[in-house]
Amino acid sequence: MGYPFDLPELGYSYDALEPHIDARTMEIHHSKHHAGYTKKFNAALADHTDLHGRSAESLVAGWRSLPESIRGAVRNNGGGYVNHALFWDVMTPGGAGAPSGDLASAIDEAFGSLEKFKESFAGAAGGQFGSGWGWLVVTDGGGLEIVSTPNQDSPLSDGKTPILGVDVWEHAYYLHYQNRRPDYLSAFWNVVNWDKVAERFAAARG
């Protein structure tokens, strides 16, 4: 889907992820923060009709090659747009406790076990200074890697395909968890939609 970009629907109610992520946080996060990124992303692209047929992901991946006047806006607001779209998609009420199939095997191969993966993922996300994201990505070679990015930067810009992401900006958790980022990250596993992560993994590997 190209320009203008629409605010994605969640596919579940604001209170559906409680008690792990509270309804008020979800409402503000989706209807204010994500909506704001969407509006500013569209505004930056409004006069660049030659870019209107491109996907949000391709624009974010290639922001460095865009006209200088919109690079910052696409990097920040386009990044916020695609990052949050993935975030909502990889969560679900009562998420499965563990991945299965090819994804489970790849996680075991890359990290040793699901528990070791979770520890490393939480370490990367929890250790991100200030605002940012923790990611599970598929590399060019088809392997799995854990990375973190500051602000609204996307792994797409580094040639990596994110398949699972967690938002560690304070607006994602502060109302409920205050400064307890590790507690938020621990609760996150209760709502991960491993089926969606597996779909993204399969698509990324072609």
> What's the rounded overall pLDDT mean?
97
Numbering strands along the chain, what is their spatial order in the largest sheet?
2-1-3
Protein structure class: mainly alpha
Number of strands: 3
Helix content: 40-55%
H-E order:
HHHHHEEEHHH
The largest pleated sheet is described as: 3 strands, antiparallel
Identify the overall geometry. Answer: globular
Note the total helix count: 8
Q: Give the radius of gyration.
A: 17 Å
Low-pLDDT segments: none
Strand content: 5-15%
**Distance, first to last CA:** 20 Å
Note the main attributes of this structure.
single chain; 206 residues; 3-stranded antiparallel sheet
Describe the protein's topology.
Layout: H1 23-45, H2 56-61, H3 68-89, H4 101-111, H5 114-126, E1 132-138, E2 144-150, E3 161-167, H6 174-177, H7 181-188, H8 194-205
Antiparallel strand pairs: 1-2, 1-3
Helix pairs in contact: 1-3, 4-5
